[in-house]
Specification:
Strand content: 25-35%
Number of strands: 10
Distance between the termini: 41 Å
Helix content: 25-40%
Order of helices and strands: EEEHEEEHHEEHEEH
Shape: globular
């Protein structure tokens, strides 16, 4: 092998995943670190699948935490769960509009809404832009959550609060990020693919969609 050796290679991390979460985790290499910052400034939506288990509560809202209480859950139905999810989405939609600082009566607001670009372009509390039930088989359930400015612990707390709203309790069994902005599970490299060729191919494959998103959002 000929050519200069890499003496320094800057690697940056995008939106973090905590130790109990899994899924899409974006890294930037070299110039990619600036692109990470640009993508961060786009405030793009992230999507998670979140598993839950009714009937118990723990000190950290996860199924591996210290048990705090056990509750009944036989009265819970999918319809009742979906009503709670609708309330959560409605409340968060109002927060999204408030933090977006957009006059909803303007042509600009209409065009942004059509393109799905209404989002807070600065700091805001965590905001859920969409939430739906994927699976329901008591005591287990699985949600798909689209959100901004969240942490994985915030999503676990949402599961806990859903349990309370349904006059029961619930713990989170899984948090898996399936999309981070323009990146999906299809773009992710498995541990067995952590080699130079696969990383190079991934960089080339993602360049166009990153460029397209930055031009669309930041101009």
């Amino acid at each position: 092998v000929r050519g200069p050796r890499f003496r320094r290679l800057k690697i940056g991390a995008g939106h973090r995943l905590d130790v109990k979460a899994s899924g899409v985790f974006v890294l930037g290499l070299g110039h990619g670190n600036k692109l990470l910052t640009d993508l961060y400034n786009c405030h793009l939506t992230k999507v998670y699948t979140v598993g839950g288990l009714f009937g118990k509560a723990t000190d950290d809202f996860s199924d591996t935490g210290k048990l705090v209480e056990k509750t009944t859950f036989d009265h819970i139905t999918r319809e009742k769960l979906e009503r709670i999810l609708a309330v959560i989405q409605g409340t968060n939609h109002k927060a999204l509009l408030m933090h977006s600082n957009i006059d909803m009566k303007t042509q600009e607001a209409y065009e942004l809404a059509v393109k799905g670009l209404i989002r807070p372009m600065g700091k805001s509390p965590p905001i859920i832009t969409a939430i739906r039930c994927l699976q329901f088989a008591l005591p287990e359930f699985q949600l798909e959550i689209h959100c901004l400015h969240e942490t994985q612990q915030y999503l676990r707390k949402i599961v806990h609060e859903i349990g309370l709203e349904l006059k029961s309790s619930a713990v989170c069994t899984q948090v898996r990020r399936i999309r981070d902005g323009v990146f999906t599970l299809d773009d992710a490299l498995l541990r067995t693919q952590w080699n130079l060729q696969s990383i190079q191919n991934a960089i080339w494959d993602c360049q166009l969609k990153v460029k397209t998103e930055l031009e669309k959002t930041l101009g």
